[in-house]
Amino acid sequence: MLGAERKLITWLAAAVLALAGLLYGLYLRQVGQRLDIGAAQAMAAYAGVLQGYNEFADVTARWLLQDAGNADLVHDLFGRRPDAAGLLYRRLYPMYESLRAKQVRQLHFIDREGYSRLRMHAPDLYGDKIADLRPLVASVLATGQPRTGFEYGRVFSGFRFVYPVYTGERVAGAMEISLSFTAIRRLMGKTLPEGTTVRFLLRRDELAQALASGEDRSGMLALMKSMYLVSPINDGYLTEDLVHPLFGEAAEPLPGYAGRLERVIGGDAAVAAGMATGAEFSRHACLALDDCYLVNFLPVREAGGALAAYVVAYGPDVGQVSRVAFLSGTFLFGALSVLGLGFLGVSGLRARSRMRAISEHVGKGIYVIDRAGVVTYANPAVQAILGYRPDELVGQHAHDLLHLESDHMAVPAADCPIVRVTLNGGNYVSSAETFRCKDGTTVPVEVTASPIRELGEISGVVTVFSDIRERLAVESKLRQSDAAINQTVEGVMITDARNRVVAVNHAFTRMTGYTESDIVGMEPKLLRSGRHTPEFFRAMWASIAETGYWQGEVYNRRKNGSLFPAWLSIAAILDDEGRATSYVAVFNDISDIKEKEAKLDFLAHHDQLTGLPNRALFGDRLEHAIARAARNRRHLAVMFMDLDRFKQVNDSLGHDAGDRLLVDCAARLTACIREEDTLARQGGDEFVILVEDLGDGRDAAQVADKLIAALRPAFAVQGHSVYVGGSVGISLYPDDGVDVPTLLRHADASMYLAKQAGGNTYRFSNPSLARDAAERLVLEAELRRALAEDELVLHYQPKVELGSGRILAFEALLRWRHPGRGMLSPAAFLHVASEAGMMHDIGRWVMRVAAAQAAAWHAAGLGAAVSVNVDGSQLSGDRLGELVREVLRETGLDAAQLGLEITETAIMEQPAGVLAKLSQLRDLGVKLYIDDFGTGHSSLARLKQLPISVLKVDAAFVRDIVDDVSDRAIVRATVALGHELGLRVLAEGVETVEQLHLLREMGCDSAQGYHLSRPIPAAEATALLQAGGSLPL
To answer: MF terms per GO, please (predicted)?
Structure first.
């Protein structure tokens, strides 16, 4: 009996254990289903959020870069225009604030060389090279294609969307939009079941390596300890401390169970093993029998595929209480299997009901199929997208009913990637699927499908999909926009790697006369004009080989043989290995522009009848000549010549004959003077001659004799032999005057003395020494009064960047608005000021007024720098440094916006101690110029010690640079020397477009002169900046 009882007890115990085992197996199966569905939901939420932000970043990037104002400032930024960063920051700031509200963490601009040019989140940090540390950025700069992915940074890490920025066909740089983890966490939290918590775990070793890549390794590692917290889940991973000032985000409180749960997860060996392999996996973790959680681990990989982080999503297992109650009831009461199974079925129905409630509030379509492909569940969102009610889908074969290929063709179920991949255990993600709607229409969808496992076996598939018609429509519009841009009016020619033409556009045919059939297969040298040397083309191709780009002015030959000037840009198209596969040339015919420029320039500065310089150009040359003569302590002569007996010829033979005579006289007089001297027509029958570099008055007399003698032979005019003579008046610098009006006035007066002497002779101006001394005393008194009563004014002459025409700065030039003599140049009074010891007071006034004007420009957003001339006497002692600091403090001007121009001679005459004081000014940020470089006697040993930023090539060398080989060689050597010393080079006294083009070809950085702009009042300078801040070249 006892044995039977024991057998019975054993049987009952075995039955109970078998029942318990069965129930526990069912419990594990339910948990597995819950984990599979939770993993699919987490993966769908994660992929959907990233895709949504990717679309958002695409639209934002296109909007930013297609806006003309933004694009211009971005190109200026990459061209390193000094004020471009500030202007772009102010323009984009309102939009950037709205992006930050959408959890965009960074908006970053990087130039083609990989250097940071502007961080909207940290505008004061720029100039560091980041491409070497950021593979995504390097890839975009190399390929010109946008890239997306996760990447660690030296401070911030996250999901980055990097887009190329083009200038024409050339990649000029990149723009990066970076997404904070908070954005993904919040959006996933909205999509996943209520109560789900999302955490981002960053690999500790990768983050430390990224942070330590900067110069301050120890400081960055210390920063990492303050910005990140060690994760309890795995001490090899970190989480962001959102309340840290660098993140600037409000802390989001975690659920009360989070700390205990993460420690429990961290103690699970299976979690550590899964994270070590970088796999996607899920775990069921319990704090108590009735307090369990579903935990999903989603790996985050860098662009190269390496594991970078984990997204961990966990939330309460809402069915756990029911399951525990069921098991407890089974063990406690020994419930019958039918009752147990019924209870389990009820619990399952409840769990499925809860899952159904969750899925019915998701905006994306969800359906579940079994292994046979039959739909077992569909949520209400399916009807909104496809038109099928959920009950109409259940029981139907999903593939036959819904699935199409992208070309709208049906395929067998075995070939359907959604079915094939998932039933083989993989996750399927695609943004190029097509589903059939109930009404027979089709809809493009984005699909994420994951297998459902029960007891380790795949029992079905859960598919999440969304309608992407709106996104595709946006992309279509963008493609249409791109096609419209390609219909350019510029000529375009594309060649292969062997430089054979493969395609041209209609504008090319219109400009050159060559059709596509004429030119395809030929080499571009068919267009060569013969006006460029082999060295020119070697330099062009060297630039393309080195930088992938060349731009400049060329002359091309049309099919009919005629030549035309063109502005040409050539860009190399590179493959993934950096080899050129083709070249794209884009050009404009600039014939009209060149002709108009030449005509306008000539008409503005030359007499239309004789072609000689006119009064304005002569005055400008004389002003520069006076400055050179003053520096070199040399004489110059101004000669006024009036033709004797011209009026009789004009009255008797007519105006045409008079004009012919004037032209012939101009030719004879031109033959008598040197190339460096100037002959101009003053008006009527008057000519004026500038003769430089004279020893004394006897040299001037010899020149006057030659001029008079040249006019003595007869002129043949309309079949008549005509005789004229010349009366010449001569004034000498500095004996007869030190400014343009005085020298011209004395020469004019002397010419009348020659007329009174019978003509055909010359006379000198000879004011008495006593009168000269008296005039100096009067001038000194008037100058002191002028300084006290604000009669002094500043005019501003632009310094223009030769590459772009952009105004870099203005040179402040002193003028005296004399109440009786009108506007006087410095040459008329600075010698008196120097003798009277007034240069310090005048220099102080000039610097204060110029700095105040530059500060006003900066406050108005115009951002133009200003430079002032410094007299040699101001360099002694500490007064110059004190004055600069005082003026910067009073005006609030940035030191980088102020320049000091010191002549080569003045700086070389100073003791060595002055160099240290100038170095202090340079360290303060002030830009130092050497003025009139080449006219002094500096040595290279002394020159390289000077703390200067800019060399100014003297106008004496620039004036004859076109025709004089020596001057051209001097200027070319000066430009090369300046660049070798790391200096910028500026040419002054530029008077013609030919000089300008030659300087640009030599590589000169900037220029100023009468051709570009005369010195202008502050109001005109302001208007010029407001109109765009550039001058036509």
So the answer is: ATP binding; kinase activity
How many Å apart are CA 871 and CA 1012, to the nearest integer?
A: 26
Distance of alpha carbon 603 from the chain centroid = 38
Contacting residues for 350 by C-beta, under 8 A, at least 6 apart: 319, 322
Phi, psi of 913 (to 5 degrees): -65, -25
| Cβ neighbours of residue 372 closer than 8 Å, sequence gap 6 or more | 397
DSSP 559: T
Q: How confident is the model at residue 189 (pLDDT cuts 50, 70, 90)?
A: confident
Q: Are residues 829 and 760 located together in one domain of the fold?
A: no
Same domain, 949 and 1005: yes
Beta bridge partner(s), residue 563 = 557
pLDDT per residue as tens digits for the range 854-894:
999 999 999 899 999 998 888 877 788 999 999 999 999 99
Q: Give the span between the Cα atoms of 868 and 613, in whole angstroms.
A: 30
Burial of 292 (0-12, 13-18, 19+ CB in 10 A): buried
Residue 908 Rama label (left phi>0; alpha psi -120 to 50; beta): alpha
Q: Looking at residue 139, what DSSP letter applies?
A: H
Q: Count how many domains the chain has.
A: 5
Nearest to 675 by CA among 965, 962, 960, 990: 960
Q: Count Cβ atoms below 10 Å from residue 402 Cβ, excluding itself.
A: 26
Q: Which residues lie below 8 Å from residue 930, measured CB to CB, with a gap of 6+?
A: 902, 903, 904, 907, 946, 948, 950, 951, 952
Average pLDDT, the chain: 85
| pLDDT tens by residue, 751-797 | 988 988 889 999 998 654 335 444 666 888 899 999 989 899 999 99
Q: How far apart are CA 643 and CA 728, in angstroms?
A: 9
CA 557, 558, 564, 565 dihedral sign is: negative
Question: Which residues have C-beta within 8 Å of that of residue 227, sequence separation ≥ 6?
Answer: 155, 240, 241, 244, 246, 247
Q: Which of 137, 166, 140 is nearest to 74 (CA)?
A: 166
Same domain, 446 and 517: no
Distance CA 800, CA 595 (A): 22
Q: Which two tokens stand for residue 86?
A: 């500030």
Last residue of a domain, one of 740, 765, 790: 765
State the Cα–Cα distance between residues 56 and 85, nearest whole angstrom: 25
382 — phi, psi (to 5°)?
Answer: -60, -40
Same domain, yes or no: 32 and 162: yes
Give the integer Cα–Cα distance in Å for 417 and 461. Answer: 12
Cα dihedral angle (845, 850, 853, 857), rounded to 10 degrees?
-160
Residue 511: give its domain's CATH number.
Answer: 3.30.450.20
Residue type (1 letter), 486: N
DSSP codes joined into one string, 934-960: TSS---HHHHTTS--SEEEE-HHHHTT
Q: Are residues 525 and 422 in the same domain?
A: no
Domain housing 373: 364-474
Confidence (pLDDT) at 385: 92
* Same structural domain, 780 and 809: yes
Give this prediction's pTM: 0.35
Q: Which two tokens stand for residue 998?
A: 């030659």
pLDDT > 90 fraction of the chain, expressed in percent and rounded: 44
Asked if residue 713 has a cis previous peptide bond (ω within 30° of 0), the answer is no
